[in-house]
Amino acid sequence: MKRILGVLAVGLVVLALQGALATILPPSLCPDLGLLYVLAVGLCWEGAASGLVVAAVLGYTADILSGSMFGQHALLRLMVFSATSLAGRKLNLRGALPLISFAAAVCVVYALGAGLLTAFFWGDEVLRPRWLADLLPQTVATAVLAPWTSSAVAWLWAWLGDDGAGRRSLQLDARGRVT
Hints:
mainly alpha, Arp2/3 complex 21 kDa subunit ARPC3, 6 helices, 0% strand
């Protein structure tokens, strides 16, 4: 429980930092720190249910702070958490280059998903030719920060410690005896 609350609290601080950064930098150069945080948490998290709850809470908070459709960021962050959690088990995303590549792909798919959801529900033409020109610098800025965000979340994960929620109550040795 300590780990869940700690990761959630830091995630809320990251969203506040994202808002502060958005007032300083132009939108196309502002990295999506909330997306990076959910991606990094997806690489560390072991239990799917509690991780999905954290991703949903951070997504709903992003919806409220950004003024977007309610549930849009929550749905997309749930998908990012799930995809990262699955990809982290199958692929080696611990290196800088694979993580940067994965973060860039996730950023593009996330933006495409947000644009398509907005176009579907509001009927606006969101995906304009200028969209790609704005997305490219933001994707680069987000992807470059991915290794540092992942390292910071891994450090946070270790610092918060394991509260015993995922441990088995009985330890078995190699011969099957209870110790």
